[in-house]
């Protein structure tokens, strides 16, 4: 799915919301590794489950052609500062739902980028007939959990001792879902 570019002016930052092109693939690959190293909120350590430039090129092409997937990025000050991906499922039993996640450079937290990415993902999901969106979030990421709840997500479960962070402690993962009004 492709959306039109949007200029966003919010919280003293002007940025562009757009779908990526194959020319963004290299920057996205590097950005993902950097973001993974900035926070414990994501599932990966830097360099784990690496997506190469070629991997991103394939994902960008597939998502552009897919009816129930969308890949959006935030571009500020001439660089990509965050992205989100709503990934549809092609299995017949799960075609009604998609999964998504958001990644934003730490220096751009607090500018409302996550909120705008989420709002646009939800618009795309609703317009394409997706009935359920699922996500997981580490239990200590309370700001994200509050944001998701504000937009209709409910806690569906808790995975106990699901992950180990650099501090050696175990953390729980919250499973959340949003069901459309259909």
Automatic annotation (TrEMBL):
CDD domains, sorted: NAT_SF
InterPro entries in the cross-refs: Acyl_CoA_acyltransferase (IPR016181), GNAT_dom (IPR000182)
Segments forming domain N-acetyltransferase: 33-177
Domain of life: Bacteria
Record-linked PANTHER family: GNAT-FAMILY ACETYLTRANSFERASE (PTHR43415:SF3), SPERMIDINE N(1)-ACETYLTRANSFERASE (PTHR43415)
Descriptive protein name: GNAT family N-acetyltransferase
Origin species: Clostridium rhizosphaerae
